Amino acid sequence: MSRTGNQLARLESEEVARGVRLLLARPLLAAAHDPDGFDLIRRRREPIVKWFDYYCGWRVLVEPRAGYARLFKTTQRPDRTRPAPDFDRRRYVLLCLTCAELLTTPTTTIDALADRVQQAAKLENLPPFDPTRRADRLSFADVLHLLEQHGAIEFDETRLRSDPVIVTRLLATPISPSTVDNIEDLTRETRYENAHHSLWQRHSTMRRLIDDPVVYKEDLTASQLAFLTSPTGRKIVQTGVGLAGCTLEERAEGYLVVDADAIATDTRFPDDDSHAKVAALLLLDRLARGPAKQQDLVEEARELLTKFRNWAKAYQSDGGAGRLAADGLALLEAFGLARTVNGTVRRLPAAARYAVEELHD
To answer: Domain containing 162 — which CATH number?
Structure first.
């Protein structure tokens, strides 16, 4: 191959790797929000689609005219922190109601949309939504912000406009929710029912490695661990991870896929962009001294709020210490740094990366 051919092949592999990581960070990527990223995925659509299909069993849909790319990630381990880390059950209910109303009325105002959601909640016998209540307004604002982030809605001076196609693409389940009664059925993938066992081994193992911050061997199934420790499985994983522009780190306790460029990272830790992340680091210091009860972590958070009374004002009210500790702990658990068992919180091995090293003369 000529030097020019080598350069073009290297450029293609670099762009494919970047496109894979872009979709891992933003499974619904709209051209309006990231025109350069979308153009790259559009140009390298075929190898990107093949990578996700072969290594993870995930479908990728790229719509150049509609201006979006959608990675349909499926998991048998639903995580309440994804895709919206700060969403609770209430916000998810409002999100569903809001999307339903936007499909029938793509152009509206925020006030009119809030009124329609209020009426829909009544008709469906759901907990009441009252736009005059501060808590409900904040929840509704979070829903609109999430939809805007995904390119499903946009605002002008007076109007709110939705993209019905992108609204329908928000849902990534392989089975329509209206046809099932529980989460297990919702995430069931029929393609594996009559497939060779090795296909599920490859896909389920790569999904864990690619999607989770850290994967402990004790959390893998016997089948997944056997795949990872076999020469064939190890080669497949290392090749797939390498094609995505990442590296696979293995420790005695587990595995970690590292993206040195942080392109595939949807949220960072450590990071001081939220009070909960700052608190999580401090809680991690406390756990370095040994296991703790959840109430012990609440006391740590209370001491922090007392010492810095002008910090984290959203947590300075009654019950704030409990909420701050809970939010910090949720982050630690989401990043595979801590685990709660029977009310006792223990630091996990990956937390050693964030240990404070003492300097000696």
So the answer is: 1.10.10.10
